[in-house]
Amino acid sequence: MAQLRVASLxxxxxxxxxxxxxxxxxxxxxxxxxxxxxxxxLPQVTAARVDPTASSAEIDRQVKRQLETSxxxxxxxxxxxQALRPDVILTQMQCEVCAVSQRxxxxxxxxxxxxxxxxxxxxxxxxxxxxxxxxxxxEALGAPGxxxxxxxxxxxxxxxxxxxxxxxPRPRAALLEWLDPLMTAGNWMPxxxxxxxxxxxxxxxxRHAPYASWEALAAADPDVIVALPCGxxxxxxxxxxxxxxxxxxxxxxxxxxxxxxxxxxGNAFFNRPGPRLVExxxxxxxxxxxxxxxxxxxxxxxxxA
Length: 305
Fold this sequence. Notes:
Helix content: 25-40%
Oligomer: single chain
Number of strands: 13
CATH superfamily of the largest domain: Nitrogenase molybdenum iron protein domain
CATH architecture of the largest domain: 3-Layer(aba) Sandwich
Number of helices: 13
Number of domains: 2
């Protein structure tokens, strides 16, 4: 029986395939797939239509312009994808702004010659959905047992994190998924905060990250501020932090006064609905309870601002 050929068009599903021990099935990747490092050698069949090096405010403007004109934020190279002859295409329909979506894939499949590949579109809204999607991917690739085993291991690790911080005071932590304009945490992010022993006063679990006003953040006056913009690594997040720190009243916030502001690698960890969400919860536990838990993720997933 011929081996399946898999095109993964989102970074999180590429990580899932590799975590399942099925990386040898991959024949194509998205422009954002970068973990494990070897996947960068796979043919890239997608691209972004916005400038990722622009400022946070300009990226937001570019994305809105693309959507207003009914254009996708991303493109799929249909010819290159067809030439690679995938049997399965992994994509998502959770957010058209964050990654290549099912709509983009449907356009690319418009004049597909011969039998069409199976399209598996993931749509995780919360943490349980992320873990269930591991099993969906494994089933689509003919290895359901591997999916169940991986999801079980990750659930056990999350339970262990929660147990290590159980009974401790719970800091109020504002998780910020974009800095200009300001967006607070949504989807699985507030759940990660809760597992790590904190409460997010502005979070919207199970929903897309909502826009928020500076006044709302100031009124919440959280104990901890965690900056983890979608798609930004540590250095990029730090470079964008002035969007917060330059605001009048910043120095009066409790988190700023007490030195409890951190920057995170949202791109590699928090924003990707895949296996490394467990490390994301571990990183948050370090941030919220530094005197009690250490996982060695400071300088890797987060840094003090």
